[in-house]
Amino acid sequence: MSGQARLAFCAWAATLAAACALLPLVAPAGWLFQAALLLGVQSAVGAVVRRMTPAGPPAVAAQAVVSLLLLTFVFVRGHAVLGVLPGPDAVEAFGALLAQGTADVGRFSIPAPVTDGIRLLLVGGVVVIGLLVDVLAVTYRAAAPAGLPLLALYSVAAGLSPEGGSRLWFLCAAGGYLLLLLAEGRDRLSRWGRVFGGGPGTARSGGAAPPPVRNGRRIGAVALGIALVVPAVLPSLGGGLLDAARQGRGTGGGGTVSAVNPLVALQDSLNQPDNRTVLTYTTDAESTSDMYLRIVALDRFDGTSWRPSERRITDLPRPLPPVPGLSPSVGTERVTTSFRAAGWYAQNWLPMPYPAAEVRIDGRWRFEPEGRTLVGDRGQTTRGVRYEVDSLLVRPTARQLSDAPAPSPQIVEEYTGVPESLPSVVAETARNVTEGASSDYERAVRLQDWFSSQGGFRYDTQVKAGSGSAAIARFLEDREGFCVHFAFSMAAMARTLDIPARVAVGFTAGASDGGGGMAVGLQDAHAWPELYFEGVGWTRFEPTPSRGSVPEYTQPDLPSPEQPDVPEPRPDDSAQPLPEPSDSEECVPGQGTEDCGAAAVPQDDGAAGGFPVGRALLVAAPVLLAAGILALPALWRGRARSRRLAGGGDPGALAFAAWRETTDSAWDLGISPQESATPRTAAARVVRLGRLEGEAAEAVHRLATAVEEALYAPRPRPAQGLAEDVRR
């Protein structure tokens, strides 16, 4: 075999060796034999053309054309001219297959079935890599740079493989590359003629390997051994929740790993210095504080991470089917929201409020009934799409949630399971926090309040992410993390209490765009737990402090201002007549007594020593002292209110003082402030929870506008009537 033919064979073998790393990703492995055949034809064409002409471009062009014809014949010959020539129909068919393959990669778990689209991605990718390797190593005699495409092929496989790339496949890829380098070295040496070695006057042209070749083998073997041994002895870094998800690995009693994991970039999004807009929307909802945009629900917890289950998908129905578990007795409000996704934002899952009742959208979208989500089909993504969603704003009462009957056994079995690897401290903590609770609803509220305010947790996006069992236990001990930690931990703890739970991933409501709409940015990415209550369905909770909004149905009911909380008289109080004065024995008719009935009432004429002033002071002093102490907060609030509303000074300081008095007054009435809310969002929340209407609602919004001008305007305008607005 000539040196060039040997080099071409080694390039073919090295490409196939690197492609073997893709075998764990799909099943069955028949596609590899197809790729080997196409690669062999491609290499043979290159060898024939190179024998005819020493120039490189003709060989490269011939190989590229033959490869295209072969791919056309194998995959889209029904749309090609004469079965091999790629016309417009064939190009369109190629595009559809590529889009389908991309969608299938995101839909199926590992190992994925070899659909037509996935097979085109695999075979076509290997053929393209093989062409690059052949061009570099054989046509232009540069075997060392040919390792870059081989490395790219192996890196893709290692990054997606459930084992993270086993040593066997690394050995195959590395051995193929070393074989290619060895073949090139022999070819270079052979051009110098006979190789001398072994001693003076000795020439070798065959037989045992010449010394330079033996040295090359030794160097290659040592380098390969170091590459395998050194990583094994170095200390490894513990993977967290998102690390495991990013690598797509499952350990323990492991099953399959979903190829789509929306948590991969969640922490990166929260830490982005530039809050790029993901999408914008307008809505007819009175308030956007509850406008959580859900992407996907993670309902499988295997001890390593939370992941979405593999679900069947159907064509998009219009309208969507009824919301599972939602009773007609629960109050709902239908809301219409129009969305527009950014041109750079491309993913397969469609963000929308939960639960959606109807979705109007163009493109290839399909419906996943269990999570009520929309998934792009055949390459369909959210890039630049416009869509409109009719959703239900579910408003259950605390009583309805507290009295919810037990869910079905199927729901309990599927959504309350926890892995055996979950540390016992998780269940013990859940029981301690909810001790004394009388219902699942009360237990859920106690868990939420413990995470958000009572447990001493701190929100920090720089904390290492993690969703496995050990990460949850570490989070409960360290008590610092971001939304992923809070959502995963509360869901796991709820499951230990036999409350069906899952984790939703998406975005919070965003912020006003200044034109009547809302803008959602990367930093609005969020995760939150959803718990199931029969009659209400999947219900959102918010355990993460300083993020999102606490649902109204998890807050204690406040008495209505129109109906003060005054105890009503008991029925027997009015049913019985008042006792009448009894007749005195001394009251004899005709003896001049004007009112015999008055004889039953003792008359104090002061003959017994006068009014007991000392005793009265002893009783009154502690009462007055206690009353004064109890009145101090009210006196202090009155003084603070007067000072804030006195007027005078800088316009910005006046606006801040008036706004602080507004939020404090709302707090006095039970509407706790949210430090993360913008003035406009806080104003909308005060209006909604305080049930303000007319001039009172307008006054709150004017105060919020004054604060925004003080914060962002170059020179805040003097605001008039701030004190009067606060009083309204």
Q: Any overview of this molecule?
A:
The chain has 22 helices and 22 strands. It has about 725 residues and is of the alpha+beta class. The strands form seven sheets. Strands 12-15-10-5-20-19 form a six-stranded antiparallel β-sheet, with no helix packed on it. Strands 11-6-18-21-22 form a five-stranded antiparallel β-sheet.
Any key phrases for this structure?
alpha+beta; 728 residues; 5-stranded antiparallel beta sheet
Mean pLDDT: 77
Question: Unreliable runs, pLDDT <50, ≥5 residues?
Answer: 197-209, 231-262, 558-576, 581-608
Q: What's the end-to-end separation, in Å? A: 96 Å
Q: Structural class, from helix and strand content?
A: alpha+beta
What Rg, in angstroms, do the CA atoms define? 38 Å
Principal-axis shape: elongated
Strand segment tally: 22
Question: How would you sum up the major sheet?
Answer: 6 strands, antiparallel
Strand order of the largest sheet: 12-15-10-5-20-19
The percentage of residues in β strands lies in: 5-15%
Helix % is: 40-55%
Q: What's the number of helices?
A: 22
Assembly of the depicted chains = single chain
